Amino acid sequence: MTSRLYPNIIITGTPGCGKTSHCESLVESLNDELRSHFQHLEISKVARERGCIDGFDQERDSSIVDEDKLVDSLEPDLREGGKIIDWHCCDVFPERLIDLVVVVTCDNSVLFDRLSQRGYPDSKITENIDCEIMQVILQEAKDSYAPEIVIELSSEDLETMDDNVERIIQWINSWRENNPDGASNELD
After folding, report:
1. Residue 3 has pLDDT above 70, yes or no
2. What percent of the chain has pLDDT over 90?
3. Could you tell me which CATH class the domain 12-176 is placed in?
């Protein structure tokens, strides 16, 4: 049986809600000892680097990821632990290898402004705001993982992001105290 000494965390949410900013801030905010054991995995980049792109969706202006190939590629990394997964999708990652799922949400007017600043076309802005309104990603997380590991954190500004990052760091410290020998990578 193998175990990981550091938790794997998914930070997910609708595009524009602040996933990547949260991940980057989290890594920067960890103390030196912890920082050396954590790695931010921006999944869109990882998928390209590891040859897990299946095509391109012209309508959505985004790559199509071969999720099975991606997960197979990532399994050894996740078994090591200490991965901070940054992607708009969370249900593809095996529950046995995930310790916390953070769904970052934000007010629709803030989301609209962020997506507009990125130059998204109106159709893509509307699709993402509808996704946020319907809480699609939050529901996906709740349907895919044990309720006790899924949390929703709102992110409208730098202050709330800083508070969220501090909360995640406190969770990491508690996880390590509660799992001094690590967590199993196998199914119970």
Report:
1. yes
2. 91
3. alpha beta
Give the SS3 label for residue 45. helix
Q: Taking the CB of residue 46, how many other CB atoms lie within 10 A of it?
A: 18
**pTM > 0.85:** yes
* 61 has a pLDDT exceeding 90: no
Average pLDDT over residues 23-35: 96
Q: Which long-range contacts (CB under 8 A, 24 or more apart) does 138-142 make?
A: 138/103, 138/105, 140/89, 140/90, 140/91, 141/10, 141/12, 141/90, 141/91, 141/101, 141/103
Binding residues: 16, 18-21, 118
Distance CA 96, CA 125 (A): 34
Q: Quick one: which of 45, 100, 34, 46 has its CA closest to 76? A: 46
- Strand residues in 19-68 grouped as ranges (E): 39-42, 53-57, 62-65
Type of residue at 132: E
Task: Give binding residues for ATP as ranges.
Answer: 16, 18-21, 118
What residues contact 79, with CB distance under 8 A and at least 6 apart? 2, 4, 97, 185
Look at residue 34 in the predicted model and tell me its pLDDT.
Answer: 94
Sequence-distant (6+) residues with CB within 8 A of 126 are none
Bridge-based pairing of strands 183-184 and 100-105 is unpaired
